[in-house]
């Protein structure tokens, strides 16, 4: 890494749409190879959303989770909302009418979902941090909190609240009986349940919230009644939604309507992560239809393959294939606890706490962006 790739003047210009984990990994590698590129994102800062839930409960933590793009990528970053892709003219279209030409395109648009787990709006670093600090205030003001959804975000959210504020009443409502992600080993999912019970979280499993549309989210109220389809009623001051993650396909869905989109909205790709039928367009991270869980770690692996293949195609070398490996998945259950699996094998609290729970991999992102954390 780091040596220059000799490209004819103007022959290669990569545009990366989306500055999540895959996007910054791709941009950093292109920058190291001195390949011309432009990274486009609606925010002015990378969001280390692996730590978004802790930023929702701990005062002053949010500023560690947003890292300026322009400080790292200078003029190779453009803040803007991508509204479409013109395949014929090989341009990326921004809201406001600007068209950005590309020779190669990396789509890294990630996924969308409810705040605080995701933060997807057009925003400055300061206003994003303020949104999380406001969330901390709502949590601190509330004595009884309901978390809706028991996937990885929901169980981590409930654990973060109980770790920071053990005196608060936290209930987690999940429509299925097993917790966390279905790809995880049964023993890992069982340990997730036991950690939550040890922390004092009340679990309502196999029940679905029936009045969600009527409930304000992320805002303290004196009296809220959360009802389920089984007739259970939970009194609360605060409701936090942690389900409903969707592939963020809005930038590209109209350009790739002809059979290149999976039902999820992800882009169908070949083994080289090229979008089907488009040798100069790559999809990485959540928006690539690859049979594996959607994780920051995988997005980084995809980025390496896409950048390598762009360079190899310019040098007329064989392309690299991406092969999903055995699942590594760590759940941070507050800074002092966690469980997960590495390459398909169970790992317990000590390993997860050292590997992830204490700093939630924040230092890795600051290192990727070559900046020092506050």
Explained architecture:
With 374 residues, this protein is of the alpha/beta class. 27% of the residues lie in helices and 21% in strands. A 5-stranded parallel sheet has the order 5-2-1-9-18. Strands 13-12-11-16 form a 4-stranded parallel sheet, with helices on one face. The chain is globular and about 60 Å long. The mean pLDDT is 95.
Overall spatial form: globular
Profile the largest sheet.
5 strands, parallel
- Spatial order of the strands forming the largest sheet: 5-2-1-9-18
Mean pLDDT over the residues: 95
Percent range of helical residues: 25-40%
Number of helices: 9
Tell me briefly what this model is.
This protein has 374 residues and is of the alpha/beta class. Helices cover 27% and strands 21% of the residues.
């Amino acid at each position: 890494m780091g040596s220059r790739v000799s490209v004819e003047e103007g022959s290669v210009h990569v545009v990366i749409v989306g500055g999540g984990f895959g996007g910054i990994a791709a941009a950093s590698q292109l920058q190291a190879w001195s390949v011309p590129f432009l990274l486009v994102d609606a925010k002015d800062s990378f969001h280390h959303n692996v730590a978004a839930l802790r930023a929702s409960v701990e005062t002053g933590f949010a500023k560690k989770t947003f890292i300026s793009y322009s400080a790292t990528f200078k003029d190779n970053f453009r803040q803007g909302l991508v509204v479409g892709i013109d395949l014929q003219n090989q341009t990326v279209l921004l809201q406001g009418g600007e068209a950005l030409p590309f020779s190669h395109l990396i789509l890294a648009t990630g996924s969308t979902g409810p705040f605080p787990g995701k933060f997807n709006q057009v925003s400055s670093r300061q206003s994003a941090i303020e949104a999380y600090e406001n969330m901390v205030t709502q949590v601190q003001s509330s004595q009884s909190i309901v978390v809706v959804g028991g996937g990885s975000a929901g169980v981590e959210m409930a654990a973060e609240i109980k770790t920071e504020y053990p005196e608060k009443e936290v209930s987690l409502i999940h429509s299925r009986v097993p917790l966390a992600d279905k790809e995880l080993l049964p023993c890992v999912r069982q340990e997730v349940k036991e950690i939550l019970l040890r922390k004092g979280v009340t679990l309502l499993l196999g029940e679905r919230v029936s009045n969600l549309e009527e409930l304000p989210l992320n805002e303290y109220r004196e009296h809220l009644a959360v009802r389920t389809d089984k007739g259970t009623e939970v009194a609360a001051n605060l409701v936090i939604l942690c389900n409903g993650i969707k592939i963020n396909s809005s930038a590209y869905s109209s350009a790739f309507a002809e059979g290149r989109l999976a039902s999820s909205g992800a882009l169908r790709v070949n083994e080289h992560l090229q979008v089907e039928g488009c040798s100069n367009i790559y999809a990485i991270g959540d928006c690539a239809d690859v049979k594996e869980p959607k994780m920051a770690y995988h997005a980084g692996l995809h980025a390496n393959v896409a950048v390598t293949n762009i360079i190899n195609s310019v040098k007329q070398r064989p392309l690299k294939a991406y092969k999903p490996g055995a699942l590594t998945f760590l759940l941070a259950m507050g800074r002092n606890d966690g469980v997960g699996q590495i390459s398909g094998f169970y790992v317990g609290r000590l390993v997860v706490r050292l590997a992830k729970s204490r700093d939630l991999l924040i230092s890795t992102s600051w290192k990727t962006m070559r900046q020092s954390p506050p």
